[in-house]
Specification:
The protein is of the alpha+beta class. It is globular and about 80 Å long. α4 packs parallel to α8, α8 runs antiparallel to α11 and α10 runs antiparallel to α11. It starts with 8 loop residues before the first helix and ends in a 10-residue tail after the last helix. 51% of the residues lie in helices and 11% in strands. 46% of the residues are buried.
Length: 394
């Protein structure tokens, strides 16, 4: 299933759809078991999808963010945990590109391709427990990070750490297997059970100077804040994929297993006027969310090639479109994953179907950052024509 440099966006999507169909067969059982989806991660490694966002000049796929987000949706339809760890790989791969020097960008793109590295996410800039201390011409990393998604079975850990002497928040990346790195088995949340989003401890871990990219804050150029935009639009697409998956699952169940209510006066649940009303309402809102996410994706893709020429206005337009898409995906997603049971009936709550995982995964993931603050940003734009101020989450 290894992809070639000539692979098109359609080819990548076809590979993702094939893998998603494969992952769907075990999604319910794996969700119940939790732990690391090792076999599924290896299948992604074998597919070549990890190379999607590596530019062609390094031998990568030279893909675009629109394709990356569509693949995230395909995975999220059947397995939100896989979508989570896969999509954050791409957000990690471009960290040296955004925060590092040209030499660091070249090194990490090249070696990610050569060694088929799977990146995880241990940035979590709000968790300031990791301290970077100078030690001659090296550094030592000590402390802990929480919410380190995809950490187990990863190859590279991108991390934020506070410089002990200057207090600056720095971005760095080190091998997951480096001495002193301990990944804890403490992820026990109700959703996203196979994301390994627990904590990591660092005990006197050696960090080389060329593994430190730069400051996480303090840059004036809009492109230096692009990682936050990518994170937010990525979340919106995963939320949307979960909602689409829940809708499709409900549709299949209603058409094949739901019984009409005894006073409905119809012979099939698919003709029940109340069920049809529910499906119509959900479908309208879901299609609106799709269009909003696609619009935000188009803007992000148009902005990405601008790099350091990206204007504050173009960045702001992206931020507003992403906020709108994320709010819409959150609201319709939670609505679909809750109301799906009303159109399926009481028997659909049997644990053998695992339909509850859609809501559990979405409810867990949508708490990543408060959606109310996105609504506030949108309101400030709608009323006062002010773009959101760039930060870790906007």
């Amino acid at each position: 299933m290894q992809l070639l440099n000539s692979t098109t966006s359609q080819d990548y999507l076809a590979i993702a759809q094939t893998l998603a169909a494969e992952f769907a067969k075990t999604a319910v059982e794996r969700d119940k078991a939790g732990g690391t989806p090792k076999q599924e991660r290896d299948r992604i490694r074998e597919s070549g999808l990890l190379h999607l966002m590596i530019p062609t000049e390094y031998g990568g796929g030279g893909g675009d963010w629109i394709t990356a987000f569509k693949i995230s949706r395909e995975f999220a339809k059947v397995d939100a945990a896989i979508a989570h760890v896969y999509s954050y790989h791409h957000l990690g791969v471009v960290i040296p590109h955004i925060f590092g020097t040209a030499e660091q960008r070249d090194y990490y793109y090249t070696h990610t391709l050569q060694h088929n590295w799977f990146w995880c996410n241990a940035l979590n800039p709000l968790d300031r427990r990791t301290i970077l201390t100078p030690d001659g011409d090296q550094f030592r990393l000590n402390g802990m990070k929480g919410f380190c998604s995809g950490s187990k079975d990863s190859d590279i850990l991108p991390i934020t750490a506070t410089h002990q002497e200057t207090g600056e928040l720095l971005v760095l990346a080190i091998p997951t297997q480096r001495n002193g790195v301990s990944i804890q088995d403490d992820w026990d949340n109700m959703g996203q059970r196979q994301t390994d989003s627990g904590s990591i401890t660092f005990e006197n871990v050696v960090v080389q100077a060329n593994e430190i990219f730069g400051k996480r804050t303090g840059h004036n150029q809009p492109f230096s804040t692009f990682r936050a935009l990518l994170t937010q639009i990525n979340l919106a697409n995963i939320y949307l994929g979960i909602a689409q998956g829940a809708f499709a699952a409900a549709k299949d169940y209603t058409r094949t297993a739901t019984h009409p209510w005894l006073t409905s006066g119809v012979e099939s649940a698919t003709q029940d006027p109340y069920i049809l009303q529910q499906y119509g309402d959900l479908y309208v809102n879901l299609q609106a969310a799709v269009l909003l996410a696609d619009k935000a994706g188009d803007l992000i893709q148009a902005a990405w090639p601008q790099q350091w020429s990206l204007s504050a206005e173009q960045r702001g337009e992206c931020a507003i479109a992403i906020a709108i898409a994320k709010v819409a995906a959150t609201r319709i997603g939670l609505d679909v994953t809750n109301r799906m049971f009303e159109v399926m009936g009481a028997r659909s709550t049997s644990s053998k179907y695992g339909f509850d995982r859609y809501w559990r995964n979405l409810r867990t993931f949508t708490l990543h950052d408060p959606v109310d603050y996105k609504v506030q940003d949108i309101g400030n734009w709608a009323l006062n024509d002010e773009f959101p101020k760039p930060n870790f989450y906007s």
